[in-house]
Amino acid sequence: MNTTEVKGNWNEQKGKLKQKFAILTDNDLMFEEGKKDEMFGKLQAKLGKTKEELHDLIAGL
Predict the structure, then answer these.
(1) Is 59:18 a contact under the CB 8 Å cutoff?
(2) φ, ψ for residue 23 (rounded to 5)?
(3) Domain range spanning residue 25?
(4) Number of domains making up the chain
(5) pLDDT tens track for 9-61
(6) Is the pTM of this model over 0.90?
(7) Alpha-carbon span 6 to 8, nearest angstrom
(8) For the chain, where are the alpha helices, taking DSSP H only?
(9) How far is CA 46 from each of CA 2, 20, 43, 54, rounded to the nearest angstrom?
(10) Is 3 buried (19+), middle (13-18) or exposed (0-12) by CB count in 10 A?
(11) How far apart are CA 48 and CA 7, in angstroms?
């Protein structure tokens, strides 16, 4: 999967996450190359989920 496919897929998932969790903002879900772990850390803190729970949640979208 190339970077364009990842970004396109992320845009879909981001929209679904924002629908499911109204407290999330665009800044919380901003995907930047090399900063995936930082973004997931913010999401974990805001949603009160573990890393595994968060990965499962996103995979299930």
Answers:
(1) no
(2) -75, -10
(3) 3-59
(4) 1
(5) 888 889 999 999 999 999 999 888 888 889 989 999 999 999 999 989 888 88
(6) no
(7) 5
(8) 3-20, 36-47, 51-59
(9) 29, 13, 5, 11
(10) exposed
(11) 25
